Amino acid sequence: MPRVSVDVLERFGTTLLKAAQVPSRDAEIVVRHLVHANLAGHDSHGVLRLPQYLDAVQRGHVRLGVRPRLLREGAATANLDGQRGFGQVAAAEAMAVAIRKSRETGVAVVTLRNCYHSGRIGSYSCQAAEAGLVGIVMVNAGGGGQSVAPFGGIERRLATNPLSIAIPSRTGAPLFLDIATSVAPEGKVRDYFQRGKPVPEGWISDSFGRATTDPRAFYAKPGGALLPFGGAVGYKGFGLAVMIDIIAGALSGAGTCRADAPEPSDGLFMLALEVERFVPRADFDCQVEQLIAHVKSSRPAPGFTEIFFPGELEHREQKRRLEVGVDIDKTTWELILEAGRKVGVSPPNDLGVARQGSGDHSNPKP
Fold first, then answer.
1. What is the pTM of this model?
2. Quick one: DSSP state of residue 143?
3. Which of 99, 124, 197, 247 is the most exposed place for a label (fewest CB within 10 A)?
């Protein structure tokens, strides 16, 4: 399992996309987004996606060099069309619009449709939180990407439809929640599949609706399905998935899940909220800090050593990986190198060393 420094990952990934004719600015935004996901420990949304993205570019599934197009606009709203460009580029720009409008109106909602895979949506809610705002983001796949069985069902009928909420903090990194409404996102199943390991129990079922830990059953023909989160109360994850499909899909115009499923094309709902329009920021921060202290004061249950608030594990993992580098499983690394060879890019001569100094690895900005 190679360990690669953050600098090498960013340079190599950017070189790969640029070799496929992706404009430099877009390549840098996309790759920094992917590497940031690796840093946070979400390898399913990290550089594992590079071969997928390169293939999509070569097949013409991603339009290069486009910018979101404004379809409708109000004082506190906007509806954008991503024009089938990279989701990371379009979504970062859409959240920037929401942030700007929120400064003017207190609360702003921006919807985005027709963009390629938007990646880890926690990046966009945190983009708002790092600007001092509350950020809420929901995503569907425009009716495509159906990989999740409904509660009580067998066949795939929904996408993983994630939700992210981020809260600003005066003491440093934001608090944030970033979850799929399925037990796990498809990328995590892919990660286990590529490493030749079984997935945890309760994640997937086979094509007959039987529980399995074999990721090959998910990718077989006919394939199995991801399960909605909640286990015996999976109707909770299922219910959230349905509501997000409507809010992110129908409200944006991206579309919802249906029998004639199209190719995935993300629809996003983004909300930015300025705290000071409701309560003094100092009071808000005090309440958040009191809540964290109160929750973390609970005695750990058997098998646990500490209670983590939302986003804390990701922040710690980011700090660790910045220092020691990112471990990438052998299969994923070989697939990345093979994708590079197809576009004429040689493997890096040196995988780098532990990163020295702080650097700027915040969320990519448009």
1. 0.93
2. T
3. 197
